[in-house]
Amino acid sequence: MGQINISRGQASDYPIVMRKSAKTASSAMPLLERLPAVERLVADAAVAPLSAAYGRPFVTDAAREIVANARADILTGRDPGIEFETLVGRISDRIREMMATSLIPVFNLTGTVLHTNLGRAPLPPEAVAAMAAVATGASNLEYDIATGKRGERDDHVTGWLCRLTGAEAALVVNNNAAAVLLLLNSLANRKRVAVSRGELIEIGGAFRLPDIMARAGCKLTEVGTTNRTHGRDYAAALDSGATLVLKVHPSNYEVRGFTAEVQTAELAELAHAAGKSLAVDLGSGSLGDLSRYGLPPEPTVAETLKAGADLVTFSGDKLLGGPQAGIVVGKKELIARLRRNSMKRAFRLDKMTLAALGAVLRLYANPEKLPSRLPTLGLLTREQGDIRATAESLQPELARRLEGVAAVEVSDCMSQIGSGAMPVDTLPSAGLTLIPLGSKRKRGAALERMAAAFRALPQPVIGRIQDGAFVLDLRCLTDEDGFRAQLEQLDISDA
User: What pLDDT is attached to residue 76?
Assistant: First the structure.
């Protein structure tokens, strides 16, 4: 039988630790004995309304948590403050914290219009009303009122998708990643898919196209090089057994310099000559010509289909300006294959998203009025002069609040569209630049504290730290009064 050897140093250290722990526990006993019972705290008159509102078991659990935290503080030598009223106050604070919703509105002053972390496209009133109309009761989600039989939920939006894109058929899922996964698994499970090396993208959240292809059961065939891919590269892949060509719009980056890519029309001709299909992932997916509104041009879904793509996938909450959704449009026979895939049910949209998407699509019936009715397009087309006027209006009040802490200057800046849409195109904008006073050596910490102070407002303000300043890009500020009203609550004591 083996023996455990303990060195002299180890043996002498262990009792010392034990004696110290015992001493701490002994000195803590008077405080531990003074801790009130959980039931007594819950029965207090100040806590009773909370029990009536949220239920006694929930309040009891919160009280146990507060008492346990106080006990742990005592045992570690900290003074937790164990007065009865103090503990009751902590219970109330804890319950309010737990019952407060965590998903709240914020002011997006980052300069990125379609900000993934901040919810992407803002919805128009028509979409919000459509969601509310079906949210509180029964609806004809999968019920055909004309026939009295079961219906198809996608039918609420597919007609408009086909009308706006010229597609034969369409379907919708919960986001574009799901749309790509469904397409690949339906058309190329255990088969080869040809993709240019320059289009093997990674987007936010470590979403990588090769990983999605592997999950879909596809075998990736890389063609070309990172910067140059030619038609002959795709032709070789098709000759070697690729059953599908996938073209991916590099919407979150751009390769410049010595580059070459195969356009959709040529790629479609190559694929169809080999008896194969071409799918195009447009990502942000514009439904209309953005250049008519003074924005940089972006390939549209209709143009891509007209060029020969058999299927096109794109997002609902980016340039389209609607709710989160993944949309697939194209050939009727191929859409039918996707629809029969059991994954389709796992990825389907709920009734409120369908209602919102349908309302947004109907706005596209009149492109002339779209900038005034679709919030995303309105923000993207907002004139720099209008934004600067807002900045000049807010500057005096904000300067007063930050007196002695930071200089507040009206400045021109550049916004970006964001969320994988036009990665190098920017929009002239204006905003407020906040420059901390004092030592430049300590400016980094001061900027972080300033950003935290704005985030701590009732409706958090999210800006960006850039070039030694805290910048509030006002392109997306549509509620100037709401922003101004809460400036009095800006706590700059630690900034």
Answer: 87
For residue 302, CA distances in Å to 308, 310, 312, 317 come to 10, 12, 9, 18
The last residue of a domain, from among 356, 373, 390:
373
Which residues are 207's β-sheet partners?
203
**Domain CATH number, residue 175:** 3.40.640.10
Domain count, the chain: 3
For 46, the domain range is: 11-99
Backbone angles phi, psi at 493, to 5 degrees: -60, -35
Angle, CA of 397, 403 and 409, to the nearest 5°: 60
Same domain for 183 and 331, yes or no, is yes
CA distances from 395 to 387, 390, 401, 407 (A): 12, 9, 10, 10
Q: What is the dihedral of CA 474, 480, 486, 487, to 10 degrees?
A: 50
Give me the pLDDT at residue 441, please.
Answer: 77
402: its two tokens: 């930050």
- CA 174, 374, 139: angle at the middle one, nearest 5? 50
Instruction: State the pLDDT at residue 424.
Output: 64
Give the helix/strand (H/E) hosting 277: strand 277-283
The CATH number of whichever domain residue 483 belongs to comes to: 3.90.1150.180
In a domain, 118, yes or no: no
Q: Which of 94, 104, 76, 115 is nearest to 317 (CA)?
A: 115
Report the candidate in 213, 259, 267 with the shortest Cα–Cα distance to residue 235.
267
| Residue 379 tokens, joined | 């923000």
Q: Give the β-pairing of 149-150 and 464-466.
A: unpaired
pLDDT of amino acid 206: 64
CA–CA dist 415, 109 (Å, integer) = 10
How many CA atoms within 13 Å lie on the side-chain side of 440? Answer: 2
Distance in angstroms (rounded) separating the CA atoms of residues 156 and 239: 41
Tell how many helices (H) and how many strands (E) occur in the chain.
20, 17
Q: Domain end: 316, 340, 373, which one?
A: 373
The predicted pLDDT at position 348 comes to: 97
Query: What pTM was estimated for this model as a whole?
Result: 0.88
C-alpha dihedral sign at 235, 237, 243, 249: negative
CA 428/CA 383 separation, integer angstroms:
8
Are residues 477 and 365 part of one domain?
no
Q: Which of 65, 71, 63 is nearest to 88 (CA)?
A: 63
Instruction: Give pLDDT, residue 281.
Output: 95
In a domain, 306, yes or no: yes
- Tell me which residue of 421, 473, 120 sits closest to 295, measured CA to CA: 421
pLDDT of residue 30: 83
Q: Which parts of the chain have pLDDT scores under 70?
A: 1-26, 204-206, 251-253, 419-424, 494-495
CB-based contact 455:465 (threshold 8 Å): no
Query: Residue 238's closest CA among 276, 190, 210?
Result: 276
